[in-house]
Structures
1.
Amino acid sequence: QVQLVESGGGLVQAGGSLRLSCAASGIFFSINAMGWYRQAPGKQRELVATITSGGTTNLADSAKGRFTISRDNAKNKVDLQMNSLKPEDTAIYYCYVQTTAWGTLDLKNSWGQGTQVTVSS
């Protein structure tokens, strides 16, 4: 079982910044990818950014140049620094973690409960 605790969402004006954090805990052999997805009202969940255990990042085009993803492997934590926020960034942001299970080495995808980010114009 993997538990994800998210923090950092909120209301901000356009052009402002927010930092999202997610900490993973539980029983697993290792954490592979960590990242953030978002879902706006009436839209499908979409990738924002991911980062591998080795530090390789993948950002959506909409996030490039504005968002930075980072992780602390010792703390099983991933952060998303969001700058120059726009109203279209308004969504529920979900933390994502892929873990490898002890023994079976099965891969498991886990999701946080989501944190609301609202950007006012």
2.
Amino acid sequence: QVQLVESGGGLVQPGGSLRLSCAASGNIFSIYVMGWYRQAPGNERELVATITSGGTPTYADSVKGRFTISRDNAKNTIYLQMNSLKPEDTAVYYCNIDYRRWGTRGRDDYWGQGTQVTVSS
């Protein structure tokens, strides 16, 4: 069993900042990739940013230069620093983990419950 605890969402004015965090715990042997995805009403879930175990980030074009993903491997935690937020960033943000469980050779995938980010004046 894996747990993902997400925090940091909320209401912010356009141009403001928020920092999301996602802490993973449970039956985890190793983590390959962790990341953030988001889903706005009526839209499909889309990638925001991911980061590998080695620290290589990937960003959606829409957030490049505004968002920064980082990772603390010792804590199995990732962070998403979101600056210069826009109303179109409003969505539920979901944490995702691509990992290997103890006693297995395969890779598993797990989603957090999501945290709401609302950008509005």
3.
Amino acid sequence: QVQLVESGGGLVQAGGSLRLSCAASGSIFVFDTMGWYRQVPGKQREVVAVITRGSITTYADSVKGRFTISRDNARNTVFLQMNNLKPEDTAVYYCNAIVVFPSRGGYWGQGTQVTVSS
């Protein structure tokens, strides 16, 4: 059973920084693409950044130049460094991971709240 445990959310002033972490349990699993998504009440969940196993990254236009996604394949962990945060970045951030071995499937973390005050 795959579990994704997120940490690092919180309250920060505009212009500040936060670092999110997501650790995927289960050493027998091989993870392909991992990523971060966010959601605010009344809106659809949107992609923030994703990273392939080979570390190819893709970012939403709204976070380019401010957020950096990275991963540690040995620890099945993905990170999101968020700099120059803006009030519009306020959301619940969810980690996502795609498993490719021994079976295929997509998994979500429980979410972590990020609040940016103006």
4.
Amino acid sequence: QAQLVESGGGLVQAGGSLRLSCVASTSLVSFNDMGWYRQALGKQRELVARITSGGESNYANSVKGRFFISRDNAKATVYLYMNDLKPEDTAVYYCNYFPGPLRINGRDYWGQGTQVTVSS
């Protein structure tokens, strides 16, 4: 069964950096466009970055120039490098297909996510 496991979050001061990783249990990820999404407390989940199977990337305006998405298809892993973090980046971060989400047994699937907290 396909799974997406996010890691790398934590507590960081404003201006700091983190690298998030998303490991997929299925090689199907290598052939799909993937995205990093985030959901702040009380807000809707939003797309912050996406990357095609060929490596082309796009970013939300709020993170452009600070975040960088990459992928290693051989490892079925997608990364999100986050620099110059701001308190407004605080959220739970998820990876998933783009457009998402992955569907398993007729249901939307999201991993557990990884919490990023940026202190001012």
